From TrEMBL:
Role description: Catalyzes the conversion of GDP-D-mannose to GDP-4-dehydro-6-deoxy-D-mannose.
Protein name: GDP-mannose 4,6-dehydratase
PANTHER family: GDP-MANNOSE 4,6 DEHYDRATASE (PTHR43715:SF1), GDP-MANNOSE 4,6-DEHYDRATASE (PTHR43715)
UniProt similarity note: Belongs to the NAD(P)-dependent epimerase/dehydratase family. GDP-mannose 4,6-dehydratase subfamily.
UniProt-listed InterPro entries: GDP_Man_deHydtase, NAD(P)-bd_dom, NAD(P)-bd_dom_sf
UniProt domain NAD(P)-binding: residue ranges: 6-330
Alphabetized CDD domains for the sequence: GDP_MD_SDR_e
EC class of the enzyme, as a word: lyase
Reactions mediated catalytically: GDP-alpha-D-mannose = GDP-4-dehydro-alpha-D-rhamnose + H2O
GO BP terms, alphabetized: 'de novo' GDP-L-fucose biosynthetic process
Organism: Diaphorobacter ruginosibacter
Cofactor: NADP(+)
Gene that this polypeptide is encoded by: gmd
Length: 344
């Protein structure tokens, strides 16, 4: 039986990856942090929380000794490092914590692999945020990096450390440079789920207006379930390497709002510009969306669009879900949940 460690099982990708690995017959050790109120709503929603091959382990990525013990006690053959302080907005307010968790954290696991068993295969959750300011589009593995947030900088350090351990110690360390991927299990602080959850609340009369920041930012949004399949394929490859996973389609935040509005039954008309921009419901004339500059970031990544050709060619990976399907799925889930009083 293959044994995998998935760090960050309480997050979006951790839940979907655990589900995938369990379906493939793996024994999965999913790690979570000790907090005063641990929350497993995602694995509960997927119905895998009591799976006999899923073992939940308390673990913090910033602890080297815990990382060593984790690999010793689980005897893992594959480690998927998904744990991170993953919210770009917060990284501007907590740059040091973000560096410690998102930047140095993965080095604890790489060191643990070197000490415990250098044959362990390691996946690092790298990100399109490392591309940051546009240098070339569509972005691919060879595109120069220019991160624009403490989060992007921290991830870039972890990315290069993964490459460095691959080249220095012959460790199977692979890096997936994943573009934004969303789902009904996305955290509500991220823009897509904030939009779908808020529009669901507006539809049900539980909220008046949705406030957002930069409407012009363009993102290459895919479906998280497609992307965890890509992570698994990256670790099954013959050699460790770096791969971009993306859809090669980009849309603005504004476009996503319009699309989600349609899925929720609103026809939104946009008026004004910049800080005075609003979206009005054509049927009632009510303002449903407006800009609040408090959501602007000190530096912004304006345009992301990825070129996933290498992953398609070498791993046979390709996204299967359109943005319209994804958006519809998220809006429907949030309407259902809000009707039931669900609050995550
Ligand atoms: P989430 O924010 O949903 O999940 C992050 C996970 O990391 C949570 O389980 C969190 O636990 C855990 N975590 C945070 N700090 C620590 C720590 N110190 N020790 C152990 N665990 C910790 O992120 P996603 O699932 O969306 O993303 C997974 C990974 O992929 C992240 O590394 C992210 O940066 C990266 N990524 C994500 C993309 C996306 O579009 N989703 C795109 C590219 C990369 P807790 O619940 O306790 O906070
Ligand atoms: P991102 O995702 O920063 O791309 O990082 P997020 O959804 O937070 O922002 C996307 C874009 O939307 C703009 N935006 C807003 N964002 C949020 N969160 N809230 C708002 O109200 C709002 N209004 C506009 C942002 O400015 C930005 O341009 C995600 C995370 O999952 C990272 O961990 C991952 O590495 C990258 O995707 C790829």
């Amino acid at each position: 039986m293959k044994i995998a460690v998935v760090t960050g099982i309480s997050g979006q990708d951790g839940a979907y990856l655990a589900e995938l690995l369990l379906a493939k017959g793996y024994k999965v050790y999913g790690t979570y942090r000790r907090t005063s109120s641990v929350n497993f709503w995602r694995i509960e929603e997927l119905g895998i929380q009591n799976h006999p091959n899923l073992h939940l382990v308390e673990y913090d990525l910033t602890d080297l000794s815990a990382s060593i013990r984790l690999l010793q006690t689980t005897e893992a053959t594959e480690v998927y490092n998904l744990a991170a302080q993953s919210f770009v907005g917060v990284s501007f307010e907590q740059p040091v914590t973000t560096a410690e968790i998102t930047g140095i954290g993965p080095v604890n696991l790489l060191e643990a692999i070197r000490i415990v068993n250098p044959k362990i295969r390691f996946y690092q959750a790298s990100t399109s945020e490392m591309f940051g300011k546009v240098q070339e589009i569509p972005q691919r593995e060879s595109t120069p990096f220019y991160p624009r947030s403490p989060y992007g900088v921290a991830k870039l350090y972890a990315h290069w450390m993964t490459v460095n351990y691959r080249e220095s110690y012959d460790i199977f360390g692979s890096s997936g440079i994943l573009f934004n991927h969303e789902s009904p299990l996305r955290g509500r602080e991220f823009v897509t789920r904030k939009i779908t959850d808020s529009l669901a609340k507006i539809k049900l009369g539980k909220l008046d207006v949705l406030e957002l920041g930069n409407m012009d930012a363009k993102r290459d949004w895919g479906y998280a379930k497609d992307y965890v399949e890509g992570m698994w394929r990256i670790l099954q490859a013959e050699k460790p390497d770096t791969y971009v996973l993306a859809t090669n389609r980009t849309e603005t935040v504004r476009d996503f709002v319009t699309m989600a509005g349609k899925a929720a039954g609103f026809e939104l008309k946009w008026e004004g510009a910049a800080e005075s921009e609003v979206a009005i419901d054509a049927a009632t004339g009510k303002t449903l969306v407006r800009v609040n500059p408090k959501f602007y970031r000190p530096a912004e990544v304006e345009l992301l669009i990825g070129n996933p050709e290498k992953a398609q060619r070498e791993l046979g990976w390709k996204p299967t879900t359109t943005l319209e399907q994804l958006c519809q799925m998220m809006v429907e889930a949030d309407i259902r949940r809000n009707e039931a009083g669900f609050s995550f």
